[in-house]
User: Which sequence fits this backbone?
C-alpha cells in the first residue's frame, strides 16, 4: 500500500513539477505523505509543514557528497542575500554519523536550518520525497506548494525572487 | 548394506569440498560521485540472489549480503552496476570453505563456479575467506594490468577457460573468475 502511495505521489510530482500547465493537485508540504520531522543541530524537532508561510528551499545533501559541498558554497551566498526577505532553507542530511554532519555544517559555514534523519537513502524524509540522487532540492512557495525541483543556479535565484515578490 | 553404501557417498561429497558464498563488498566508480546516486544501490538490490545492500560511506563501498543457499553470479553484480551507469572499482567476495586447496594458476570449482588463483602459494582454505576478483572491468584498468601480468595464462584476458585450462577438466567456453587472496 505504501508503495502504491509513493507511486501515485511520484506520478503527481512529475505532472505538477515538470509542466507549467499542471493537471491535478499540486503537492503541498502539509500533505502527510510529504511532511516529515527531522532533528536539528541542537537536538530539537523540525517539522517541515511548520515552515508554511515562507519561501522554502528543501535541500537534501550529505557531508560525503562532494557536489553537495560544492553547492553549499553557492547556497551560503544565496541565503545571505535573501534570508531577510523571507527565504528559508531546510537542509536535510543523509549522513549516517551526526558528527560528520555537524563538522560539515561548521566547515561550510551553514547558518540555515539543518536537520538529520539518520538512515541514509532509507531515511523517511528521503523516501517520502523520492530522493534518488544528491544533491536534490525542492522549492516551496508560501502556500506550501512544491513549485520546482532541482533548479540550476540562475533559474533558482530568479524563481526565489519571483516567489518573494521582489 | 544399502545404508552404509549411502553413507559412503555422502562422505565423499563432503570431502569434495563444501563451499558457499555468502556476502561481498563492492566499490563503484564513474564520471560523477557514484555514492551520490541511489542508482547503484537500487540496481544491486534487484539482483536475484541479493538479500540486502548497505551503503558504507566510510569505505565508499556497498556491503552486499547474498540470500542463503542461492546461486550467486558475480558477473550479474557487475552488469547491475554498469546498467546503472557506473563501473565496478573493486569486488571482494566472502565465503565459507573447508579444505579447499588454492594453488597458483590452477582452476578449481567452488560453489558452482570456476576460480583461478592468480597469486596463491598453495594455501589450504578453511573457514571464512575473501577473494578479490581481478578480471577485466572488476577493478581499475591500472590494477587489472598489474594482475594480468602475474599469470602467463590467456584466460585472464578473456575470463573464459580457453585452451590453456581444459586440462583441469573445464570446458573452454566456461567462465573462470580470476581472484587473489
Assistant:
Amino acid at each position: 500500500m505504501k508503495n502504491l502511495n509513493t507511486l501515485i505521489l511520484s506520478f503527481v510530482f512529475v505532472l505538477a513539477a515538470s509542466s507549467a500547465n499542471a493537471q491535478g493537485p499540486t503537492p503541498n508540504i502539509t500533505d502527510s505523505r510529504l511532511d516529515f520531522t527531522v532533528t536539528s543541530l541542537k537536538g530539537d524537532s523540525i517539522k517541515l509543514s511548520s515552515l508554511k508561510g515562507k519561501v522554502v528551499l528543501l535541500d537534501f545533501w550529505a557531508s560525503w557528497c562532494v557536489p553537495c559541498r560544492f553547492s553549499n558554497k553557492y547556497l551560503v551566498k544565496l541565503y545571505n542575500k535573501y534570508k531577510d526577505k523571507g527565504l528559508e532553507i531546510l537542509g536535510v542530511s543523509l549522513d549516517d554519523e551526526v558528527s560528520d554532519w555537524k563538522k560539515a555544517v561548521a566547515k561550510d559555514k551553514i547558518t540555515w536550518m539543518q536537520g538529520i534523519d539518520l538512515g541514509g537513502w532509507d531515511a523517511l524524509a528521503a523516501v517520502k520525497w523520492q530522493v534518488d540522487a544528491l544533491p536534490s532540492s525542492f522549492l516551496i512557495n508560501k502556500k506550501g506548494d512544491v513549485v520546482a525541483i532541482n533548479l540550476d543556479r540562475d533559474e533558482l535565484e530568479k524563481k526565489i525572487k519571483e516567489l518573494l515578490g521582489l | 548394506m544399502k545404508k552404509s553404501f549411502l553413507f559412503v557417498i555422502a562422505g565423499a561429497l563432503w570431502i569434495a569440498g563444501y563451499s558457499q558464498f555468502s556476502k561481498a563488498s563492492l566499490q563503484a566508480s564513474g564520471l560523477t560521485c557514484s555514492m551520490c546516486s541511489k542508482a547503484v544501490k537500487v540496481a544491486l538490490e534487484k539482483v536475484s540472489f541479493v538479500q540486502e545492500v548497505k551503503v558504507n560511506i566510510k569505505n565508499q563501498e556497498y556491503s552486499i549480503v547474498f540470500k542463503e543457499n542461492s546461486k550467486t553470479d558475480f558477473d550479474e553484480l557487475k552488469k547491475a552496476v554498469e546498467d546503472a551507469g557506473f563501473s565496478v572499482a573493486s569486488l571482494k567476495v566472502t565465503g565459507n570453505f573447508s579444505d579447499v586447496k588454492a594453488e597458483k594458476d590452477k582452476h578449481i570449482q567452488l560453489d558452482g563456479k570456476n576460480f583461478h588463483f592468480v597469486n596463491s602459494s598453495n594455501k589450504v582454505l578453511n573457514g571464512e575467506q575473501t577473494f578479490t576478483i581481478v578480471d577485466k572491468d572488476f577493478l581499475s584498468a591500472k590494477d587489472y594490468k598489474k594482475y594480468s601480468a602475474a599469470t602467463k595464462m590467456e584466460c585472464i584476458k578473456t575470463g573464459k577457460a580457453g585452451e590453456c585450462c581444459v586440462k583441469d577438466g573445464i570446458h573452454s567456453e566456461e567462465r573462470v573468475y580470476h581472484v587473489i587472496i
